[in-house]
Design a protein that fits this description.
With about 160 residues, the protein is α/β, with parallel strands linked by helices. It has one domain: 3-Layer(aba) Sandwich (Glutaredoxin), CATH 3.40.30. The strands form 2 sheets. A 5-stranded mixed β-sheet has the order 6-5-3-4-7, sandwiched between helices. The radius of gyration is 15 Å and the shape is globular.
Length: about 160
Amino acid sequence: MITVWSEMSPGARSIVAPYSYRDDPAVPEFPDSGPVLVFDGDCVMCSHSAMFVLKRDRRAVCRFAAAQSALGTALFRHFGLDVDTYETFLVLHRGVAYGKSDAVLEILSILGAPWSIGRVFRVVPRRIRNMLYDYVARNRFRFFGRRDVCYAPSPEDADRFLS
């Protein structure tokens, strides 16, 4: 399986093999046996999205990393994504990286019912889904605000967050 990044950003790699980050010495080792969600920890909307997933992940399989963490930044760089703006939610699942609207749909699938019904939006062409995603991403601070400090998990959830 491969991930096509051509829809993500102009400088992103076009095709990336599953688990390619394992061979990148710049990416620290991390547990990737389950889904990993990398989110902008400074963004109110992004942090709330991570909390949404955390609360609804009944099987507790997801792990999280702020994009501003060493791991998050290394993963963004590995996939050729902008580490100055962090304008995508990055999801690693079974070694495959998903970004933008594909990341959102993958998360909904991981959460299971009733959230997985959101998969029906896969019928909408990626280009259209990503146009909407990009609009919200570009304006997320104006619409939702910026956190004064990067999101920090509660003590009971700390083991699910990677740094």
